[in-house]
Amino acid sequence: MVTPFFKRKEAADKPPKPGLVQRMQEAEEPAAAQEQEPAAEPQNGMVSTGKTPLDKKSLDLIFAVEQMIQARTHAETKSLELQDRLTHSNGSVERLNKDLKNLSKVIEEREKNIMELEQKLVEKNLKVDQVLEDYRELQAEMLTEADELRSTIDLEQQKYAHLVQKHNEAHAEKLKRINELEEKIGRLETENAHLKQKFETARQEKTYLANMIADFTNRMTVPFGAGSAQEPSEPGGDS
């Protein structure tokens, strides 16, 4: 749809319609032809238009009036065009002002949102800083505890190595003692066997001596005669 502004502009751009000046020029052309003829009438300062003769002043006056009318028409057209352009500009300005107000509201809302986000970001940063500080403190404590644990582990490893060494020494001493005891037991068993053998030998000797003593005692207590009567039986008794 073409706006009135563009319609007025197109109308201003169109050439003006043939007016009074053109009609006068058309009327002047036959008059000029008559003047060029040999049998022309003497010039008396009058110009004939074919209908009503007009002098030069009248033509100039008519031409000036026509120029004034055209200038006024052009000025009115230009004024209307400018008025349309002004109206269009005012409408554009109003729309722009309205858009500017809307944009200002949007900008205010965005700035408000940005301020809220900045506040939240500041709070988040504070929380992050606090968490980082807590993490650093916890890391320092963990490093200290780790150092203490390493020291404790090293000490316990040294103690364990010392205990293992003592255990190995005690075990070796125990094995040595067991070996010594086994050797001693072997010697004692051997000695015990020898002592049993000696005891058995001594017992047998003691039994033999006791029998001899008892036999001798019996012989001494028996009467001599009886003893001589019994002499033949002694060899059998000795056997």
Q: Which key phrases capture this entry?
A:
239 residues; mainly alpha; two-stranded antiparallel sheet; 2% strand; disordered C terminus
Structure in words:
The chain is mainly α. The protein contains five helices and two strands; from the N terminus they run H-H-E-E-H-H-H. It has a two-stranded antiparallel ribbon with strand order 1-2. Strand 1 (46-47) and strand 2 form a beta hairpin. Helix 1 crosses helix 3. The radius of gyration is 80 Å and the shape is rod-shaped. Residues 1-18, 27-50 and 227-239 have low confidence and may be disordered.
Helix/strand-derived category reads: mainly alpha
Helix % is over 70%
Which series of helices and strands comes N to C? HHEEHHH
Strand order of the largest sheet: 1-2
- Strand content range: under 5%
> Given the structure, what is the number of helices?
5
**Strand segment tally:** 2
Taken from the alpha-carbon principal axes, the silhouette is rod-shaped
- Output mean pLDDT: 77
Rg, Cα atoms, Å: 80 Å
Largest sheet report: 2 strands, antiparallel
Poorly predicted sequence stretches spanning 5 or more consecutive residues: 1-18, 27-50, 227-239
User: N- to C-terminal separation?
Assistant: 173 Å
